[in-house]
Specification:
Family: Belongs to the metallo-dependent hydrolases superfamily. HutI family.
Number of domains: 2
CATH topology of the largest domain: TIM Barrel
Strand content: 15-25%
Shape: globular
Helix content: 25-40%
InterPro entries: Amidohydro-rel, HutI, Metal-dep_hydrolase_composite, Metal_Hydrolase
Pathway: Amino-acid degradation; L-histidine degradation into L-glutamate; N-formimidoyl-L-glutamate from L-histidine: step 3/3
Bound molecules: N-(iminomethyl)-L-glutamic acid, fe (iii) ion
CATH architecture of the largest domain: Alpha-Beta Barrel
Low-confidence stretches: none
GO molecular function, one term: zinc ion binding
Catalytic activity: 4-imidazolone-5-propanoate + H2O = N-formimidoyl-L-glutamate
Length: about 425
């Protein structure tokens, strides 16, 4: 049993606590449930009590001497951030593509010429499982240093059974060996591998008949994602893959309407996807369909910035009643970052989310997008003690002083892991 920890005198303790369960929409995204001079008692990996410093001082009067006491005076305290969309497990690096894009090439030009996802796929196939583990572990350390305590991770750089499984096994091992919680998504339909060019449906057959059954059998993933995009997988092919996953118990997610408007958001609503990702080019009908079905929009403003594209219509989506989450999209091509604080800043600057909405999108709604909201995403008694202390005194400053890592310390399951 670990020693009890008492964090006291937080200038703002942002709990995001609520009676309401499930993804938050509209005004509910701004209800942060803040406690001034806040205090929190952690023990046995769990949050045992929350209140003002005075309240907990009385409640634990006879135990305070034996607890580790953290004075959070002048500091903001929030739940650990959750990143619900990453491609963090991969081999190699693609800085040359960054230069190519600055010289005028587009993301799809590079991919169609055998670079992009195909380049990372080659490097991921070549690298040993151990090497990928070690590289990914470093990225997870960086996430943690930026206040992120849970992430989703996708396969999708294998594009063959063996390497897709290799990526998912790396995630399983990281879940055991790294403090970060990592929720695995199978994304065998991330691209059509070059040896299947012109035989796209045969690759879909392979995903449906071989990869998905194996992934489900070995319980290697919780979600099933598809890159539904012009020149990648059509809405029909995407639907087939997502429905096949559903029958095996994998919940659908979709990379939708990123480069072109292609009916991805509408498909997400139709198949009952938990979330649709990117949505830079989503149609008005797509937004309405997502609002109606409660599909979470997982928006990736760092990717839009990095590809020098206009950001998604986050403000409009919230106003239309779509629950919004935000994410780094951490990947070696379109968004090589692990900074959720930067993503929160960008959600405000480029999508006009308010600081409060941005924080909800990076914590509670993000947890909902990967179905871990019962455990994390808000500070409530009985939940996992995943907590960040920030070197700013209120949540607006966290968003206002941008491009800076304000993390003071990070607690994962009640244990200090950063700071
Ligand atoms: O979400 N859009 C497709 N997939 C990733 C990029 C992957 C890559 O370029 O390696 C994304 O942006
Ligand atoms: Fe992605």
């Amino acid at each position: 049993m670990s020693k009890a920890v008492w964090i006291k005198h937080a200038s703002q303790l942002v709990t995001l606590a609520s009676e309401h369960r499930g993804p938050r929409t509209k005004e509910a995204m701004s209800e942060l449930s803040i406690i001034e001079d806040g205090s929190i008692w952690l023990e046995n990996e769990i949050i045992q009590a929350i209140g003002t410093t005075d309240e907990l001082q009385i409640k634990y009067a006879d135990r305070i001497d034996s607890a580790e006491i953290i004075d959070a005076s002048g500091k903001l305290v929030t739940p650990g951030l959750v990143d619900p969309h990453t491609h963090v497990v991969y081999g190699g690096s693609r800085e040359r593509e960054f230069e190519l894009r600055l010289e005028g090439a587009t993301y799809m030009d590079i991919m169609n010429a055998g670079g992009g996802i195909h380049a990372t796929s080659r490097m991921t196939r070549e690298a040993t499982e151990e090497k990928i583990f070690v590289q990914t572990e470093k990225r997870l350390d960086s996430f943690l240093a930026h206040g992120v305590t849970s992430i989703e991770g996708k396969s999708g750089y294998g594009l063959n059974l063996e390497t897709e499984i290799k990526q998912l096994r790396v995630m399983r091992r990281l879940q055991q060996e790294h403090p970060i919680d990592i929720v695995p998504t199978f994304m065998g339909a991330h691209a059509v591998p070059s040896d299947f060019k012109g035989k796209e449906d045969q690759y879909v057959d392979l995903v449906v008949n071989e990869m998905l059954p194996r992934v489900a059998h070995d319980k290697l993933a919780k979600f099933n994602d598809v890159f539904c995009e012009v020149g990648v997988f059509t809405p029909e092919q995407s639907k087939r893959i997502l429905e096949a996953g559903k029958t095996l118990g994998l919940t659908p997610k979709i990379h939708a309407d990123e480069i072109e408007s292609y009916g991805g958001a509408e498909l997400a609503a139709e198949v009952g996807a938990i979330s649709a990702e990117h949505l830079l080019k989503v149609s008005d009908m797509g937004i309405a369909a997502m609002a109606k079905k409660g599909v979470i929009a997982c928006l990736l403003p760092a990717t839009a910035l990095y590809l020098r594209e206009t950001a998604a219509r986050g403000r409009e989506m919230i106003d239309a009643g779509v629950p919004v989450a935000i994410s780094t999209d951490c990947n070696p091509g379109s968004s090589p970052t692990t900074s959720m604080p930067l993503v929160m800043n960008l959600a405000c600057i480029s999508m006009r989310l308010t600081p409060a909405e941005s924080l909800c999108a990076a914590t509670y709604n993000a947890a909902c997008a990967i179905e871990i909201e019962d455990k994390v995403g808000s500070l409530e008694v009985g939940k996992q003690a995943d907590i960040v202390l920030w070197n700013v005194s209120n949540y607006q400053q966290l968003q206002y002083l941008f491009g800076v890592n304000h993390v003071n310390s990070v607690w994962k399951k009640g244990v200090k892991v950063v700071g």
